[in-house]
Amino acid sequence: MKSGAFIAVLFGLIALSLPVAAILGDIAIVMDYFWNDGRLQRTFGGFLWEKSNQYLLLSIPLFILLGEINLRAGLAGQMYSAVAKWLSWLPGGLMHANIGSSAIFAATSGSSVATAATIGTVAYPEIERRKYNEPLFLGSVAAGGTLGILIPPSVTLIVYGVLTQTSVPELYLAGVFPGLMLAALFSLMILFICILKPDMGGDRISATWRERFLALIDLIPPAILFLGVIGTIYAGFATPTEAASIGVVLSLILAAWKRKLTANMLLEAFEGTVRTTSMIMLIIFAAMILNIVVGFFGAIQMATEFIGTLGLTPLQLILCVIVFYLIIGMFMETFSMMLTTIGVVFPLVTSMGFDPVWFGILVVLLMETALITPPIGVNLFVVQGIRAKGAAFRDVCVGAAPFVVAMLVLVGLLIWQPEIATWLPNQVYGR
Amino acid sequence: MEKLHTLLFRISRLSVWVFGAGYLLIALATTLDVILRNSVGGAVPGVYEISGYIFAIATTWGFSFVLFERAHVRIDVAYMRFGNRLRAFADLLALLAMAMFIGVLTYRAWVTLEDTMFFGATARTTLQTPLWIPQSFWLAGMAYFLLCIVFLAVYAVLLILRGRTADVASIAGIPHVTAQIESEAP
Fold first, then answer.
1. DSSP run (H or E) holding B97
2. What residues are paired with B74 via a beta bridge?
3. Region A262-280: what's the mean pLDDT?
4. Could you give the C-alpha distances from A82 to A63, A76, A104, B101, in angstroms and in order?
């Protein structure tokens, strides 16, 4: 009963459009004040200081800075045309390049929004030039962008790792196969649609093998970044935070080489970095404080026992969790969605014997779905923002729908064969 | 009021530039540290510790910048359907809710700093940094954030009293959803 009221209040305040961080923080303060004489509040100061300089969290601003510099260094344009030369002979043409270059960009960026914005800006002019079906084309950009948080390095997986004390390197490895499979499923979906309705596909681009191999040169910068960041983690040279630092230095060098490194560009990158980092950190702080308070009242145990009395099988539980996330994902921004719920959902799911690394990948996949489901889907907004003014938002939502189906297929596969996520980390870490 | 608004924003933006450069320095120093450690076995002294302090301070100073950029996440499902006047009140309520949360945090951070000074606490590292130094800057960022929230709340009340409810959105509203590209939420 109490937890029902708690959730009602939570969603009521969210509907009032109060800041998510303030909602979480204020609920924690009020609960502690009325039912605990404000005793837990005394620990907040020391707790915050300790979390404020936690070394793993430091990787968040560094990965964001890396993305901000890449975004402004103009690496995306050449990379896009290189990928286009390899993939655009398929039915669906450049839409496969949208997916492919998103996957590659995702391997150098930890953010879905940055990925969609970068690829979208490069790809958008092609719609008119080559007569693509605009909704589907935009949908492929929005969906491709979501790969940013699944394919490592991913800022989202770091936050999940910090909140649930799961190993970030293992999460990164676990994201590789699902990420590649999702990209492949997206492409299959495009192929399928364009074979059924060839007029949606636009012009194909043919390239000679010579052009294709020459274009590979343009893929060297992202390859260097990927090896510098991910390679150093698994070679044992660097922790995720150190790898992010190396990534920042490499992207600076690449930007300088492209002659895009200016003081103004750096200041813009700094503003973008601090804006995103502080926005995320405030919600993280609030969620952590709320988790302390909620944990103190034994709410998690109560929830676990309550679920126990329902007699759900693990499969039924996980299906409930998925439906729950799909629904709130329509209305909530993804970070807030994970941070407000993971404190209760994670212990529940692991108590049923699910693997924390596997569940991390599942949650990220559901967050990706949330990014492209209306009415609130951040990637849909990003893509809509790239379009010429006055076009209907509905188009983008319709175009993204087939890719939601592809994501749900992968969710199903992940439940059926958990090894898709866990095999690679198990091989490397020999669990 | 407008001049004060601009001044507070400029201070906030200046801190962002400074701490953004701080992140860049962290990246450079850490990379150097990794290279040294894996080649000659040396290290850049104190990188690990000082990076943590810069991160903590940059985060709290960034809060006010996020506030001015109106980028603290708010869910706008209902907000989109509000009229101007209702939006102005929702914006004011949002500021007050934030003021309550940050008020408590700032007070608790202040008590933590007091304890640190009272016990003369130092970091358990070779540097033995007196912790009051980074904690003061950290607290200052939080306090500045609180100051800016209170200022915006007063500003919003004045605007509402003068009947300029439409203008409240420009200082405290939710930027139009399509403008979120710049906000780079990952």
1. helix B84-119
2. A19
3. 90
4. 25, 10, 11, 50
pLDDT tens figures, A141-161: 999 999 989 998 888 999 999
Longest dimension (CA), chain A: 74
Distances in whole angstroms, Cα of residue B163 to Cα of each of B74, B92, B123, B159:
24, 14, 53, 6
Would you say A418 and A356 are in contact if contact means Cβ atoms under 8 Å apart? no
pLDDT of B147-169, one tens digit each? 999 999 999 999 999 988 888 88
Task: For chain A, say whether B48 makes contact (Cβ under 8 Å).
Answer: yes
User: What is the rounded CA–CA span in Å between residue A363 and residue A335?
Assistant: 11
Task: Pick the residue from chain A with its C-alpha nearest to B27.
Answer: A245
φ and ψ at A117, to 5 degrees?
-65, -45
- C-alpha to C-alpha distance for A132 and A328, rounded to whole angstroms: 32
Q: Does B119 touch chain A (CB under 8 A)?
A: no
Q: At which residue do the structure tokens 């590209």 appear?
A: B181
**Which residues, in sequence order, are CB contacts of B77 under 8 Å at separation 6+?**
A15, A17, A331, A375, A376
Q: What would the two tokens of residue A312 be?
A: 């759900």
Determine if residue A66 is left, alpha or beta; phi over 0 gives left, psi from -120 to 50 gives alpha, anything else beta: alpha
From CA A320, how far away is CA A326, in angstroms rounded? 10
Of A52, A270, A332, the CB nearest to B59: A52
The Cα–Cα gap between B47 and B2 comes to: 41
B83 touches chain A (CB under 8 A): no
- pTM metric for this prediction: 0.86
Cα A81 from Cα A103, distance rounded (Å): 14
CA distance A363 to chain B (A): 15
For residues B46 and B127, the answer to whether their CB atoms sit within 8 Å is yes
A88 sits in which H/E element:
none
Identify the residue whose tokens are 């404080």: A289
Q: Are A374 and A330 in contact (CB under 8 A)?
A: yes
Cβ count near A34 (within 10 Å): 9
pLDDT in tens, A186-202: 999 999 999 998 888 77
Complex-level ipTM: 0.91
Query: Residue B176 has what DSSP assignment?
Result: P
